[in-house]
Amino acid sequence: MAAAHTAAGEPVIVFDSVSREFGGKGRVVRAVDDVSLTVHRGEVFGVIGFSGAGKSTLIRMINGLEKPTSGTVTVLGQQVSHLSEAKLRPLRTRIGMVFQQFNLMTSRTVAGNVNYALATAGWPRATRKARVAELLDFVGLADKARHYPEQLSGGQKQRVGIARALAAEPEVLLADEATSALDPSTTGEVLSVLRRVNEELGVTIVAITHEMEVIRSIADRVAVMDSGRIVESGPVYDLFSNPEHAEGAASFVATALKDRPNREEAARIRARTGGRLVTVSLKDSAAVGRVLGHAAGYGVEFEIVHGGMSATKDSSYGVLTVALNGDEQSVQRFIENLGAAGALKEVAA
Ligand SMILES: Nc1ncnc2c1ncn2[C@@H]1O[C@H](COP(=O)(O)OP(=O)(O)OP(=O)(O)O)[C@@H](O)[C@H]1O
What we know:
Elements: E1 11-22, E2 29-40, E3 44-48, H1 55-60, E4 70-75, E5 78-79, H2 85-92, E6 95-99, H3 110-120, H4 125-138, H5 154-166, E7 172-176, H6 184-201, E8 204-209, H7 212-218, E9 221-226, E10 229-235, H8 236-241, H9 247-257, H10 263-273, E11 276-282, H11 285-293, H12 295-298, E12 301-311, E13 316-325, H13 328-341, E14 343-346
Helix pairs in contact: 3-4, 3-5, 4-5, 5-6, 11-13
The structure holds adenosine-5'-triphosphate.
Adenosine-5'-triphosphate binds at residues 22-23, 29, 31, 49, 51-57.
Keywords: Amino-acid transport, ATP-binding, Cell membrane, Membrane, Nucleotide-binding, Translocase, Transport
Pfam family, one: ABC_tran
Function: Part of the ABC transporter FtsEX involved in cellular division. Has ATPase activity.
């Protein structure tokens, strides 16, 4: 199949101070509020946030399904925000899209769905059959070519959706809540296909989702959206392993990650264990393990009361909350050492 993996390169999607408002004179909703961001070739860029945060509106501006009220959106070197429908058409063939509800044609077979996408993109009949076979093979559905969508599981339907989106060899793939209608067991199979689309075909992916799992397992960088604004953005690893978040991000990230005890949980833990509660975010689990291993030497007893280790696409991180008991000075000295091994935050009383 096509190109090998390309390292993150030139900007392929650039939002420059983009806002999108809906509604008339009375009540105006600013669905996207002054967003600037850049997605580079070859990366998987995730956008996460609660329902209503503006993610769908944002992604729809990439292929010109929505127009900004102000600001500019540039995709593959063209200013989408200002293109006519006629000029948008050829650009859209370079941008594939997968949808939460798959949007397959129920009256056509799996092969028929993919073939239809090729036909609309202008591929000559003679070349289509081989391309359909190649695509179904890529998504692991070669044996389902003659099946109808209703005979497939949700995960299989979405893999057809991906094959169809890839039909015309797009450079960019937009994934709009691609796994949100799936159960956790099939979510994994779809995410692994998306990862291969990026790594083996070099396709740049923008994935919007409310599921942290999607970001954690496929994204390189992430933007957290809240009320139309990007409240936090950066490498995925930093988002997961950093205990400090911006205001809006804190509420979303903390709720979605459940990586530290909330107020009620902390109160319950404290009542049971006594002592000081600290959360340590680790990029180097071995270092934290070493420090915890020395607790007895400080005259401090510790108990891990919340959290654990997880993995992003490229590395592991952990967020652990520990209850520390001992005399005040020893605990303080121990906390200072722990702080040297990983970012540390005292759990608020
Ligand atoms: N066509 C529209 N007309 C009026 N308001 C809209 C329209 N599209 C979106 N909105 C509003 O803009 C805000 C952002 O919606 P958007 O669908 O982009 O958010 P989202 O993060 O994708 O949420 P969801 O996952 O629920 O779709 C919401 O308040 C929504 O009601």
